[in-house]
Amino acid sequence: MNSTTSGSRSMLPIYLLSAAGFTVLTTEFIIVGLLPSMARDLKVSIPTAGLLVTLFAFTVAAVGPPLTAYLSRFGKKKLFVSTLLLFALSNLLAALTPNFGLMAFARFVPAVMLPVFWALTSETAVEITGPERAGKAISMVSFGVVAATIFGIPIGTLISDAFGWRVAFGSLAALAFAKAALLFFTLPSMAGKKEVQPVSAQLGILRNPLIAGHVLLSLLVFAGMFATYTYLADILERLGHFDGGTVGWILMGFGGMGLLGNWLGGRMVDRSALGASVAFCVPIAVAMVLAVPLVKSHLWLGVVLAVWGASQAALFTVSHVRVMKSASANAALGASLNISGANMGIGLGAMIGGRVIDHYGLPAVGIAGAVVMALAVVLSLVLMSARGPKPCACEPVTSFH
C-alpha cells in the first residue's frame, strides 16, 4: 500500500510535465489546423502562412542545444514555470495581432524556450524511472505531445471554425497560465546541474559521426512528415471539400490513432531504435502518397489517415529516444539535439511543401513528403550497418543522475 502510494507520488512530476507538454506542443502545432483561416484573415497565401511553421521550427533548431546547455544549471521548476508563462503571453499576443509581422514575432518568442522545456522534461522523466526504461518514461511524457495532436490541434480547429482563430489562441493562452500555476504550486523543487561544462565542450559530442547521423536522421524524418502534414488541413478543405468543422473532427481521429502509435513506438524503440524508425517511416510514406488520390473516398481516406496518424506519433517517441540513447553521456543535450534536428526538419518540410504547392500544386505535397521519408529509410539502414559502439540505454551515465 505504502509502496503503491510512494510510486504514484514519484510519478506525479511526469504526469504534471506531460500535461504541461500538451500546452507547449499545442502552441507549436495548433497553427496546422488554423492555417487556412489565418491566411485568409491576415491576407497572405497558404505557402506564406506556412512560413510561420518554418520560423518557429528554425528558431527552436538554432537556439535549442546552446540554450539548453547554458540553462541546465538553473532550477528545473523555475524554468518549467517561466516557460509556460512565456507561452501564455505569446499566445495572447497572437490572439490580438493585427498583421502578419506581429504574428511572426508572437511565434518566435515561445520557440526560444520550447527546446529547453522539452529537453529537461525528457531528462527529468528518465531520472525518475532510470535509463533502462527510457523508452517508457519518454513515451509517458510524450503523451502530452500525442494529446496535443489528438485534442489540441483539432479542438483549436473547431474553436476557430466556430469563433475564429483568435479565440483559439486566446484559449491556449488561458490554458498556459493555468498550467503555470499548477506547476508552481504542485511541482517539487528540482535543482539544476551543479557542475556544467562549457557550451562548446558539450556540443563537441556532434564530432561523433554516429550521433551526428542520428540527428540528421531526425531532420529527415520530420522534414518528410511536415512537408505534407503542414498542409493537411488545406488538402482536406480544398481537395476533399470538407468544411472547417469536419476537418477538426478528422484531425481528432488522426490524432486519436496517435495513442496507438505512441504505445507501439515506446515498446519498439527499446528493442531496436533504428529498426523502429524504418518500421514507421515506410507506412507513413505510403499513406502520404495515397492521401490525395483517396481524399474523396471517405472509407479509404480514414484508413490512410489512421496509418499516418499512428506512424507519426510513434516517430515522435522513436526519434527522441533514439538520439538520447546515441548521446547517452549527456542525455539532456541529446534530447535538445534531437529537438533541433526535428525542428530543422519541420521548418524545411514546411518550406519544401510550400515550394511544391507553388510549382506543382497542392496534390503533389504527398509525393514530396514520401521522397524525403525514403531518404530517412536509407539513412536508417546506413546507420544500422555503421561500425562503432552500440548505444545502450543501460550504460552508466552521469547525466541521468
Q: Key terms for this structure?
A:
Growth Hormone, Chain: A, globular, disordered N terminus, single chain, mainly alpha, 401 residues, 0% strand, 15 helices
Question: Which secondary-structure class do the elements indicate?
Answer: mainly alpha
CATH superfamily: MFS general substrate transporter like domains
CATH fold naming: Growth Hormone, Chain: A
Shape, principal axes of CA atoms: globular
Helix content: over 70%
Euclidean distance between termini CA atoms: 27 Å
Radius of gyration: 20 Å
Count of β-strands: 0
**Could you list the spans in which at least 5 consecutive residues all have pLDDT below 50?**
1-9, 388-401
Number of helix segments?
A: 15
Mean pLDDT score, rounded? 81
Count of distinct structural domains: 1
Q: Helix-strand pattern, N to C?
A: HHHHHHHHHHHHHHH
Class in CATH?
Mainly Alpha
> How many strands, which pairing sense, and closed or not: the largest β-sheet?
none
CATH architecture: Up-down Bundle
Beta-strand fraction estimate: under 5%
Task: Report what the structure shows.
- This protein has 401 residues and is mostly helical.
- It has a single domain, classed as MFS general substrate transporter like domains (Growth Hormone, Chain: A), CATH 1.20.1250.20.
- The chain contains 15 helices and no strands.
- The longest helix has 30 residues.
- The N terminus and C terminus are likely disordered.
